[in-house]
Structure formats: C-alpha cells, structure tokens
Design goal:
By secondary structure, this protein is of the alpha+beta class. It has one domain (30-229). It is built from six helices and ten strands; from the N terminus they run H-E-H-E-E-E-E-H-E-E-E-H-E-E-H-H. The strands form two sheets. Strands 2-3-4-5-10-8-7-6 form an eight-stranded antiparallel sheet, sandwiched between helices. Strands 1-9 form a two-stranded parallel sheet. A hairpin with a 5-residue loop joins strand 4 (78-85) and strand 5 (91-99). The longest helix has 23 residues, at 5-27.
Length: 234
C-alpha cells in the first residue's frame, strides 16, 4: 500500500524526533571527573633546586570564579601563580588553573589567545611533547615566544581535559564531546610556565629549563595533586 505524502513525512519527522531523544540521552553527561585536591596547599614551595619567592613577577592574569559562578571570563575553580628561583638565579613563573567541569560554552582559555588579547605579539609557536618521567612520549603541549614593548617572554604549557591533552580549540571541543558520549563531564587544568628573557637568542635555554622544571614539579607533588596536572601521575 502506498503511503500518502503527508503520512510519510509524519513518519520521517517522528523517527527524527525519536533519534534526537535517544541521542540527547546518550550524550547527556551523568558522571563528573572533578577533584577536590587543594592546589595551593599541595604544590610544593620548594623542590629540587627551585624555591618559590615570597613576591613573584607579574604574570598574565588568571581569575578564580566564586563557587558555582564560573563564566566565560572566570572559568577556573582554583588558581596558583608563583615565581620560582634556582641556585643560579634563574627564574620560572608557574601558573596552574583548574576547572572542575568543562562544557562547550565554558572552557579553559588558551594562553596564546590571552597573551595576544593583552597586546603581545607571537614571533614563534611550536607544538611539542613536554618530557615527563616514566612517560616515553611526553605530554602534548605547546610553546611560544611573545613580545610586548620591552618585555620578552617564553611560554610553555599543556592543557589537560579529562584524559586528553588537546592542542587546539577544536581539539578541546572534540574532547568534551567524546567524554560526553561516555556520560562524563571532564575536569581540566592549564599548566603554564613562563620566563622573561633578554631576547630571542635566550629562548632555547629558557625552554629547556622550563621542561626540566615541569618534569621535576610533577615528580615532587603528592600523587593526588599530580593527578590534577597529568592524566596519570608518573
């Protein structure tokens, strides 16, 4: 029996609505990955040859939202910002920004975007795997050299979203979507280190120093805190 055009269209619409309902149920996250470890108390003030200064250098700002009041401008639940110095007088600025939940409309900010918004210009930008003890492949991250007036700064960072390390805004969206398909709202953290340098000739040494700093930092942290920085503590 041949269906009327109206009936056929009605059946198609009903099928699409049913599929949409199923899809909405499937992608609706039902489990969170949020962690309650207090970063300020567990990030060591001293480790290896590094010691935090009582008063550090000014860094690119990261603001904490009031509890439950995260917004696009204030997406973080915890922020730690310190400057460390070693016995050679070398400095590394550390910034950690943790968010309990990541959503498509509310994600961690990528540092290069924040720097550019504050008037910095990028003269180089590289993707790399940042070494970690016990991780042969390192952690997918990025580094860049930024200048603003007389200030020249090398920056290395990674972003962890759930169990992923996306290197782009698109990658972050896909990670949030993939976690959602498994019924999970991922947490996330920005792990950023930076150094003020005299010029471009000093960037290679600064990047190498930052890589060592990050590896030593994660290794020196208690396991619960290290799991905030990396998907699996080394």
């Amino acid at each position: 029996m041949k269906l009327s055009k109206a009936l056929a269209m009605s059946m198609v619409i009903s099928a699409l609505m049913a599929a949409s309902s199923v899809a909405a149920w499937v992608v609706k996250p039902r489990q969170t990955m949020e962690q309650s470890t207090p970063l300020e108390d567990t990030v060591p003030q001293a480790f290896g040859d590094w010691k935090a200064l009582a008063s550090g250098y000014q860094q690119m700002a990261l603001s904490v939202a009031a509890d439950g009041q995260r917004s696009e401008e204030q997406p973080y639940d915890q922020v730690v910002m310190r400057t460390y110095r070693n016995s050679h007088g070398e400095h590394v600025m550390l910034a950690l920004a943790y968010a309990k939940q990541q959503q498509q409309e509310l994600k961690i900010h990528r540092p290069e975007i924040c720097y550019k918004a504050q008037g910095y210009e990028a003269t180089e930008h590289q993707e790399l795997d940042l070494p970690q003890a016990g991780n042969a492949h390192g952690i997918p991250g990025q580094r860049f050299f930024m200048t603003s007036g007389n200030r020249r700064e090398t920056v290395s960072y990674w972003i962890r979203i759930g169990s992923d390390y996306p290197r782009s805004g698109t990658g972050a969206r896909l990670s949030i979507l993939e976690h959602g398909l498994h019924g999970i709202v991922p947490d996330a953290i920005l792990v950023r280190v930076s150094s003020i340098v005299a010029g471009a000739d000093d960037t290679a040494a600064a990047y190498e120093r930052q890589e060592r700093f990050l590896a030593e930092l994660v290794r020196a942290m208690p396991a619960p805190a290290a799991r905030l920085l990396v998907a699996a503590a080394p």
